[in-house]
Amino acid sequence: MKKKIAIIGAGIAGLTFAKLIKKNSDFEFMVYEKKETLSLEKGFGIQLSINSILILNKIGFKNIKPEEINHPEKLNFYSINSDKICDLDLTRFNTKEIKYTTLQRATLLEFLKDEIYNQHLRFGKKIQRVSEINNKILINFDDGTNDLVDYVIAADGIFSNTKSFFESNINRPKFKNAIAVRSILKLKKIQNMDVKNINLFMGANTHLAVYPINKNELNLICIVRHKKFDPDNIRNLIDKKVLNQGPILKKLFEGDLNSWPLYSTDKILPSSNKNVFYLGDAFQSFLPTMAQGAAQSIEGAYTLFNLLKDKNNNAHNIYFETRSKRAKLIKKRSNFNFFAFHVSNPVIKVIRNIILKYVIKNKAFISNYLGKVYNN
Asked: Are 152 and 17 in contact (CB under 8 A)?
């Protein structure tokens, strides 16, 4: 009899796992999403390093339309006043078919939902309770339906509701005293910027990145250290903490701004049930300073898929140990970048920039610092 899997959450992690299952196994599965629709409106962008592109290509991503993606070749480092410091060659990790990629999140979700949407995706599904029956898990939803499955894959985000049904000890996400602000920029309105590549601007207690997400638009993401999230006061916050340092960047913030508080989990805890697995942000969330959020969701989905496909009897322990080691590496680098990007002391800034110019050209350092991330 086929094993049955319930995937909770239709984000990048859940849909990647579902697509791997659909294309490469004979498991029965269903994706359950608590929202009423899959959010596919055109909007903000994501970066995918080669560790995730390698996996996505196994399920057809290499056939995506060229006009829907970009392959930046450089990461340009600037001070907040737009003085260029140096640039990093991103192509050193690329191959002919595996390249650093930027795109709209909606484009990736459109690709992932293909072959899943009609038959394997159910909306408006919120878990009411769970129970174990003969080594299986019975999920009861608040609409009166249920599903009896062999495995539960919780991919419902950093504030995973699914965890509360299985864990007595939940690792609560902590506010990192930082705010993320995002906007979409029209390419034709941006001047004096390398719009084909990634541009990182570093200031005191803030940094922002601008990169292409299609042939006509750029994504702006700005991180500001601040102890309180007030969505009604975001423009004042940007004026005070970003544009006061770099008024030349004012044009970047003229459009609609979306904002949210940044959270991260300090500890990584295993599932207490050997048939329940946490995936993506439900497993471990990161500060967005290594651009590895989506990539790690994809990596985790691939690791878990292979363990279950191969019917590994120790899948629960191997998955946790493998992904914990990986997550700790990414988290350590993300936290260091969070510090380095936001240096406020003028003397330390000068020292940082001198060191940055040196290490960017040091092949051994780049191979260690980024190679261990990109070459999973």
From this structure: no
